[in-house]
Amino acid sequence: MAIFGPRANLWMNTALVSVVVLFLGALLSIWVVPVMGYNTQERYAPEQPVPFSHRHHVTGLGLDCRYCHMTVETGQYAGMPPTETCMTCHSQIWTHAGVLEPVRQSFAENISLRWNWVYRLPDYVYFDHSIHIAKGVGCTECHVSIGDEALTRKTTTLYMSWCLDCHRNPAPHLRPLDQVFNPSWKRTANTPSGTALMTAYHIHPETLSDCGVCHR
Amino acid sequence: MRRLPIIAVAGLALAMAGCDNMANQPKRLPFQLPYGAEANWPALPPAGIVANDEPFGPPPPPPVTIALLARGQQRYDIYCSPCHNRVGDGNGMIVQRGFPRPPSYFSANLIKASNQHYYDVITHGHGVMYPYAVRVAPPDRWAIITYIRALQASENARLAEVPPAQRSLLQ
Questions:
Q1: pLDDT tens digits, residue range A182-198?
Q2: Domains plus CATH for chain B?
């Protein structure tokens, strides 16, 4: 019997190609797959009981974020409005709209609407809205295009690297306190510099990336 | 000693069982129903239920300061201006979209109305206006009333009454 059978060449070529393919596959799964939109769920808008549009309510009508998200300045959570808040206007406007039927039903039965989480953080992260608001981080620094979204979608990866980008260098993300809730704010020539705002708000980036800032 | 690898593997397997998903910890979070819960939270607490840190009765009106006025302006612009408009004439954006028009703050009735009347309307609502007790905390109600009084005073103000340094802002 010969050392090399008639298919020896085929086996060897297959093995060589497999090594390259597996190597590239490993590279893809480590560096590419985690940042693909399918995994980060960026631009993903979960289905909701009511197709609520921030574009209509914020950009169109000019409602302040805090009209509905009442605890954003004082609490860990921005707060979801009770159905009473929806019905404040919708008891008089769009009273027969089909899409608002779940709202009317919720109000009549005194049962909360159940919205689906868009920005879901793992339980080991202790994110707090109020401190970011108090230190001049505007809503749209994280919820990028929220004021112009017809359906609320996730606009960031929420990866820890994304949090740290800002925690290591907060200055470019700060704005004057009266502009925090302005969804279309842009830095102008008259805006105080990020460094000046950082001093004014007593922000110390050297301790801002300590583990205990976000993890307990 | 032949059994050492088996024991080691069994020990590791046991240790791995302790690695649960820390992203979903068994703790109660706001806006989250307990795991497996069927019933939903009530949208508003039943009548007569008060929070255990809720003070008895409304707080007395605070002294009028510039800080109170600024707070009132901020809260007014958030919660009242959609209907009452930022100047207080009752022609806000929601009214322009079909909501019944509220009375202007400059009407004789509302200029005469007591502060308590405004406080009660914010707390309990009035006509088609819903209660704002959940949205506007009691101290903020007084701040908003202070600002509404300032709006009323500004309606008939003359340029001569404005401090000279501020006049250029209005012209």
A1: 999 999 888 999 999 99
A2: 66-155 (1.10.760.10)
